[in-house]
Amino acid sequence: MALGGSTSDVDVRTVSGGASNLTYRVCRGDRSYAMRVPTAHRNDSTADTLRREMTLLEALGGSVIPHARLVAKDADGEVLGAPFIMTEWIDGFSPRAPLPMGFRGSDSARALATNLVDALAAIGNEDYQALGLGAFGKPAGFLERQVDRWLSQLERARSRPLDGIDDLCSALRCSRPQTQRTALIHGDYQFVNVMFSLQAPPRLAAVIDWETATIGDPLLDLGWMLAGWQERGEPPTHASYMDWADMPSRAAMAERYSMATGLDVSDINYYVALALLKLVAIMEGWYFQYLNGHSKAAGHAVMETMVPDMIRRALVFAAAR
After folding, report:
1. Is residue 233 packed enough to be buried (19+ CB in 10 Å), middle (13-18) or exposed (0-12)?
2. Of 118, 189, 198, 288, which has the highest C-beta tally within 10 A?
3. Quick one: which of 286, 212, 238 has its CA closest to 46?
4. Eight-class DSSP state of 297
5. Helix axes 142-156 and 165-174, enclosed angle (nearest 10)
């Protein structure tokens, strides 16, 4: 594998690590790259997930969607013993509170928000067939499968009664809207999974972490983004990592998305409630791991109260259609 750069010396440094993958910064001379590697095994589920992201990033090379350009890949693990992807290095930051100097205040908050939703609209507008992603997902019946899919995951990791979950699933089954468009969806679209340029004013440089991407109803991406949105006077959400002061309202964000995509967002509360059901299933799984001694993360312990709160919040959105 040949890397560009002014010298032959290669410097590799760990950026982050977790159960699913490791991220490294690879430098050769004056050029930098990001390399992601799953576990040390070629054929486990995380390797399969990385291969899907590999396919997606390769397809995005012909897209207007902001992303880190794929520069090298190994699907079979021949080089390192595990698959990897290497992309261009993005000099930027994923917004979290406190925001960097130069990105604070009402003007920056609005610019961060509008950049975020505009990039999501670009994803929803992209012709995934033209990118060669026609077989990337199973769009037929996508929305119809969602409640049972996430309820099934929840039941596999359920250790306690969860008041309201049956009512939530019933409401989502009974009021499901018709899918207006089949599109590429990111699957975990929020501030922590995008990068902004280091230079003010805010400019979204890349959408990252595509490992849960698929083909389906793009309004679920919007619902997921808005599920953590916090308006003035509301209690903290699961996305309390962000400073929500001066951010536009959920309604304003949905309307901007609608103007950019041509999609009707009058049922967006349904998609927010569905996104919260998905989060309930994921986060109750974390709590299950904590209870069984497989996790000592403090963030997993707080799911004891956060999950029931999330169900109550989802019921409010489900009833607000």
Report:
1. exposed
2. 189
3. 212
4. -
5. 170
Cα torsion 251, 316, 124, 19: sign:
positive
| Rounded distance between C-alpha atoms, residue 64 and residue 33, angstroms | 21
CATH top-level class of 10-89: alpha beta
Structure letter (DSSP) for residue 141: T
Q: CA–CA separation, 293 vs 310, rounded Å? A: 23
One-letter amino acid at 147 equals: V
Tokens at 274, concatenated: 């569905």
Please tell me the distance from the alpha carbon of residue 267 to that of residue 265, in angstroms, as a whole number: 5
pLDDT tens digits along 97-141: 999 999 999 999 999 999 999 999 999 999 999 999 999 999 999
Separation between Cα atoms, residue 286 and residue 264, nearest integer Å:
34
**Domain 93-319, CATH:** 3.90.1200.10
pLDDT 10s digits, 11-32: 888 886 555 678 899 998 889 9
> CA distances (Å), 210 to each of 50, 60, 151, 242, 313, in order?
9, 11, 23, 21, 27
Residue 198 makes CB contacts below 8 A (sequence gap 6+) with 91, 92, 93, 100
| Distance in angstroms (rounded) separating the CA atoms of residues 70 and 57 | 6
The residue among 119, 115, 72, 67 whose CA lies nearest residue 90 is 67
Asked whether the whole model's pTM tops 0.90, one would answer: yes
Contacts for 97 with CB less than 8 Å, ≥ 6 apart: 241, 242, 243
Domain ranges across the chain: 10-89, 93-319
